Amino acid sequence: MKAFDTENSVWARFSPEQRGQMETYSVHYRQFLDTARTERLANKEIIRQAENAGFRPLADFTSLKAGDKVYWDQKGKSVILAVIGSDPIEKGLKIVGSHIDCPRLDVKAMPVVEKNKIVYFKTHYYGGLLKYQWVCLPLSLIGVVYKADGSRIDVSIGEDQGDPVLFINDLLPHLGKDQAAKKLSEAISGEMLMPLAGTNGEGEKTKPAILTLLKDKYGIEEEDFTSAELEIIPAVKSRDVGLDRSMIMSHGHDDRVCSYANLAAILDAEPGEKTQVALFADKEEIGSVGNTGVHSSYFPDFIAELLSLQGRDQEIWLRRTLRNSEVLSADVCAAFDPVFADAYEEQNSAKLGYGICLCKYTGARGKAGSNDANAEFMAKIRRIFNEKEVPWQVGELGKVDQGGGGTIAYIMADWGCDVVDCGVAMHSMHAPLEIVAKADAYSGYLAYKAFFESK
């Protein structure tokens, strides 16, 4: 099979057996999507699958040998898995870095508000999204609430068929003349993204009745919202798309399509000479900040812990390890959409259904903020994919002056690693519901597995 082919889709190149493997993989990926609905739930599911595959917490180890499987849980919102190789760790790692946070709405610290006897939740959007897309959708409320005594309440409302859902109103077109005259970015403001929470009340006010319901049914006091992490996402599970079922619709493909491929790859890859590391990071959508984002020290700390268990305690060993490491920044890229052709440069855009996408650079206008991978490393990754017959293509994020974006690649390049962006191309990125091709999702798994197993 030709690995790099701009004329024939992956489906056309695959044998019947490979098509069957792709469909099986897609079923498992959809199960992951419908379980790992937030970064906390993704963390939990990744650790569950890792433990079933023999991974143990790093704290359980007093030394490391080839074949050991370890994991690091970073505050319940990021995870690192590693399979120790036969080479000393300082000779470099094979790292695939993905992220498990997604664009969404976050509930504010004091969210419950009443207007004309209608109660709403106030929200703050998380990550780059188009606010007008979040109105008139069934929405779930998922997350954790910590009470004053330190006890935890897990919240999941809207996920089961019999649950109520939340809903954000829009203005009816009969009265929308002034709204229609505004730019899309101004038609719905951030403060207007207030889901309906209830209308039933007694007397002058409705809010007290809703607060009573929250206390009686969920054990939540109004003050408890100040120590909560509650996310609002579409109350819609994944679905096959197209009469041929060639695509998958879901919330959170960015970046769980790469995260699941990363997980499946490290669980299936044969241990090799190099230590294999799968990173599942938080906070990428808001700049990789905080102590669960990649700008934090926890990833280098994890590597330092591995080195210490092999008797390499001095910081120079950490620096050498990172300098000798190779990274695939596993994040999605934009696939050419002919409906919006003016935003793309077609010849250098990825296409839906043509394999995993290598992006030499991201950034914006003049490559600002980009890693811009070295040609030598691009050549090595090409060679790995071609030898293993991994379907791949190249792409970039739209026309030069159109916009842009970024991934964690530049952060890991700052550590001295060789890095290239390598992710699944998709349509409707950052929308409440996004589209990927099954062939591309499966190609991501094949790509990361081949990389882990390479020398």
TrEMBL record:
Its EC number is 3.4.11.-. InterPro entries: Peptidase_M18 (IPR001948), Peptidase_M18_dom2 (IPR023358). Its cofactor is Zn(2+). Gene3D superfamilies: Aminopeptidase i, Domain 2, Zn peptidases. NCBIfam families: PRK02256.1. Keywords: Aminopeptidase, Hydrolase, Metal-binding, Metalloprotease, Protease, Zinc. It holds the Pfam family Peptidase_M18. One of its GO terms (cellular component) is cytoplasm. This is M18 family aminopeptidase. One of its GO terms (molecular function) is aminopeptidase activity. Belongs to the peptidase M18 family. GO terms for biological process: proteolysis. It comes from Megasphaera elsdenii DSM 20460. It comes from the Bacteria.
